[in-house]
Specification:
By secondary structure, the chain is an alpha+beta fold. It is built from 13 helices and 35 strands. The strands form 6 sheets. Strands 5, 6, 7, 8, 10, 11, 13, 14, 18 and 19 form a 10-stranded antiparallel β-sheet that branches. Strand 6 and strand 7 form a beta hairpin. Helix 7 packs parallel to helix 8 and helix 9 packs parallel to helix 10. The longest helix is centred in the last third of the chain and has 21 residues. The chain is globular. The site of alpha-D-galactopyranose has 11 residues, from loops.
């Protein structure tokens, strides 16, 4: 046996503790702290820990020295994994060695800043690391300084680098498209580099900037799960790579276009924040940590958001056909069914009759609104609702007064054709004059009438994002958007804002630090929404998830679902209606009123609490919202059952010693009617059903039969 020599100078460790997780770094003799542990919370006394170099055998054909994964691993002097930084000065200084490191605790045992210096390449790095004692959220952010005399070209710079232990072998991530966001995919961690890049200029429908990594045993409520996402609404890149010792390194950061990041001497660059978490309570444990963190970072800053008002959004009801009298009538019909906020979507401004013109000309169209928008806003308020307005400030139509006056304000590349998307161009938000103009326009609208809410849209990908000097400005565009929205929020703090980009094209923790909800998808097909919501809830809490009851057939797919199934699917999110209530049958109208009332009654449980998700092996999916002793349970079926009798639904979070009363509040009956049948199901409908928590957790809740495209809603409460 080889003797292990432990250096006499005892190694020093940086330990951070969350609620249920611990992180340990080792202070290295040279360079950035080394990742030693991230996982379940450890004993208060770590006992004897050896240096990484003392416990890692040296492989054959290796450089002399040991190179474990550090907080900021860089290429060139012995690290062969992905580099946290790729940079050079005219081809020189490509190899960095951050040999000097100092640590400053910002919150002892919870947050520190590592300051690294490479005196040869003359680059400084400052990485902030914080682990929340409340949510187990790990936050990483990096700043880079150019201390040299010449400009530094940065090709890539990670916001943070995470270490995932060797037994975590699977990756769960999300892709999709317009009208079908948050589709889950799984990959194995293999010897190939796993890499996802988003180059669309905004968060995108297809490349959500985050993922989960876990071992084979992990499932919804159990098992070790690592999750991370970038709080950023622009281009992004993430890589996962197996290292020599079996652990994996996970890098997340901004994707930089060629030449985009050139740092002048003395200047610095700051990455977006990376949010990560560990949970040994499975995917839902990680989701619950993220929900707590997003709530703490969001515009409510940890205070419980006010009850989310039920919306009516005019888009799928009237599209571009705005007429003042008709919209008053529509508002009246919305108020009559219990809607609390009326949101006037696209079509209200000068000349906007379809999607080919007018973006940029943010004045009410006098042919549709002879006295402007204020009379409608006042009317909406007078009948007890808030008034919301759709805008798409970052865009300009070529057929618009704004474009004719300022063609140079649009993103474009000299001597290259203009690439339009939905017939429109994007404005250059890195320009101060454009930002000032847009602030003036939005401030004018918000000051001139009682607008409580803006639906802030962005209906195209960026190609190219280039400023007047011909250089790429993707990141500057996102920063310009943040500046504008921050300024609006500062000037109008009571106005709520929704982030939309053709549905879910701009959903991320960066935008959600500034906005009050997102528009999850333009697809209102309940069957598809059910899956999208489950993906969404992995990262974001239900109260920010815009979820509307649409018409039947659904405009995006042509499929029809019952009012109850549509409503139960939307129920858990920020609920709304996106249809013309005047065109509903009497039965559907009565149904919608019932569901709006249900939502209002249940929203304290649906929002602000914990969320659990699950599925059986035969096409049933369920979602529970609230607290372990009092929750709302929705069980849904999309495809026909293969089994004659559904297996009981195990609810692992039920409190063993408690007795729960189970009420079936509603059952979406479509097509074949379920036979209520058994005594228990009858009792669930008449208030007499109860089961012990241990039984619910271990054996499960018997579930009445469900036809395809139907759902059942339960209230489960411990006495
Ligand atoms: C986008 C949004 C829709 C609607 C339209 C209006 O597609 O996602 O909800 O606002 O724009 O043009």
């Amino acid at each position: 046996m080889n003797a292990v020599t432990v250096p006499p100078d005892a190694p020093q460790f940086l330990r951070l503790d969350g609620r249920a997780s611990t992180i340990v770094f080792e202070i290295a003799a040279l360079g950035a702290p080394l990742w030693r542990y991230w996982g379940q919370r450890l004993d208060d006394d770590l006992g004897t820990l050896y240096r990484a170099s003392a416990v890692r055998p040296r492989p054959t054909f290796a450089l002399d020295g040991d190179f474990p994964l550090s907080l900021f691993p860089t290429f060139g002097l012995g690290w062969f994994g992905q580099s946290a930084l790729l940079a050079h000065r005219e081809g020189r200084d490509f190899a960095q060695d951050f040999s000097q490191c100092s640590i400053k605790w910002e919150r002892p045992g919870g947050a520190f800043v590592a300051t690294l210096n490479d005196p040869v390449a003359q680059i400084g790095i400052e990485t902030s690391v914080a682990l929340s004692p409340l949510s187990d959220l790990l936050t990483l952010k990096t700043r880079l300084w150019n201390f040299g005399a010449a400009a530094l070209d940065v090709t890539s710079l990670a916001a943070g680098v995470l270490r995932i232990p060797a037994d975590a072998t699977r990756i769960l991530y999300f892709s999709g498209r317009h009208n079908n966001e948050f589709i889950p995919y799984e990959d194995d961690i293999s010897p190939a580099l796993w890499r996802r890049e988003n180059r669309r200029g905004l968060t995108s429908h297809d490349c959500f900037p985050g993922a989960l990594v876990f071992g084979r045993g992990a499932c919804n409520q159990t098992g070790a799960v690592y999750a991370a996402h970038l709080a950023w609404s622009g281009d992004s890149v993430q890589t996962i790579e197996r290292l020599d010792d079996g652990a994996a390194a996970w890098h997340l950061g901004e994707w930089l276009a060629p030449g985009e990041c050139r740092i002048a001497p003395g200047a610095h660059y700051e990455t977006p924040e990376l949010l990560a978490t560990y949970s040994d309570a499975g995917f839902d444990g990680a989701a619950q940590n993220f929900h707590a963190a997003i709530r703490a970072r969001g515009p409510w800053r940890g205070l419980a958001p006010a009850p989310r008002p039920v919306h009516l959004n005019t888009w799928e009801g009237v599209y571009f056909n705005h007429r003042f009298d008709d919209l008053k009538d529509l508002a009246q019909s919305a108020a009559a069914i219990g809607v609390e906020r009326f949101v006037l979507d696209d079509g209200w401004f000068e000349g906007r009759n379809d999607d080919t013109t007018s973006l940029g000309d943010w004045r009410a169209d006098r042919r549709k609104y002879p006295d402007g928008l204020r009379p409608l806003a006042d009317y909406v308020r007078s009948i007890g609702m808030e008034f919301g307005l759709w805008v798409e400030p970052e865009m300009v139509s070529q057929d618009s007064g704004l474009y004719r006056a300022h063609p140079d304000w649009a993103l474009a590349l000299d001597r290259r054709r203009a690439v339009t998307g939905r017939n429109q161009l994007a404005l250059d938000l890195s320009r101060a004059d454009v930002g000032a103009y847009l602030f003036e326009v939005l401030d004018g609208l918000l000051s001139s009438m009682p607008i409580a809410y803006l639906k802030w849209d962005h209906n195209r990908d960026l190609a190219p994002a280039s400023g007047a000097d011909g250089r790429a400005i993707y990141g500057a565009q996102t920063r310009g958007f943040y500046r504008l929205i921050d300024r609006i929020r500062h000037a109008h703090p009571s106005v709520e804002i929704e982030s939309c980009a053709g549905g879910g094209g701009r959903i991320d923790a960066g935008v959600l630090a500034r906005t009050h909800r997102v528009w999850t998808s333009d697809c209102l097909d309940a069957d598809m929404r059910l899956a999208m919501h489950r993906g969404f809830l992995q990262f974001f809490p239900p109260e920010v998830m815009g979820a509307h009851v649409g018409a039947a057939p659904a405009h995006a797919t042509g499929r029809s679902h019952s009012m109850a199934f549509r409503a139960m699917t939307a129920l858990t999110g920020h609920f709304g209606v996106e249809l013309d209530p005047r065109r509903l049958s009497a039965a559907d109208r009565a149904g919608l009123i019932f569901w709006i009332n249900q939502h209002k009654e249940l929203r304290p449980l649906l929002h602000g609490g914990l969320v659990w998700r699950g599925q059986d092996q035969d096409g049933l999916v369920w979602q529970a919202h609230g607290a372990a002793r009092d929750f709302v349970l929705i069980v849904s079926r999309t495809a026909p059952a293969a089994r004659r009798i559904a297996a009981p639904l195990r609810l692992p979070f039920a409190v063993p010693g408690a007795t729960y009363r189970i009420d079936e509040i509603a059952h979406a009956e479509q097509g074949v009617l379920p036979a209520a049948g058994t005594e228990l199901f009858q009792a669930m409908r008449s208030g007499g059903a109860s089961l012990r928590g241990a039984w619910l957790a271990q054996e499960g809740l018997p579930i009445p039969p469900l036809a395809p495209a139907s759902a059942a809603l339960f209230r489960v409460k411990a006495s």
